[in-house]
Amino acid sequence: MGIDNGEWLNAKITIASDDDLTPEINLGKPFKHMDLVIPTIDSASIAIYVSESSGGTYQQLGNSNNILAAGTGATTHVVILMGWQFIKIGTSAAQTSNRTFRVRGLN
Question: Fewer CB within 10 Å: N-end or C-end of the chain?
Fold first, then answer.
């Protein structure tokens, strides 16, 4: 049984375009889990949003393990993705600077 990890990708909140949500991230294929590196942020909760297809309708991933309580980041988490490929990362509060999260899929 080999390791099946995706590539590390940047997921960036750019305040000029959306101050609390990253653009779509394509993990490359469906994954069961995801490494999530959270940079230092303005205090906020973090949620993962998923879609069945690129450019599709996004909804919050309902597993309570995927909603990270309010904090200022600078942490790493393993998120239960349950087989999703297309994701966005959102914060509950507007960010005052651009924020770059790092993600990779895990199986």
Answer: N
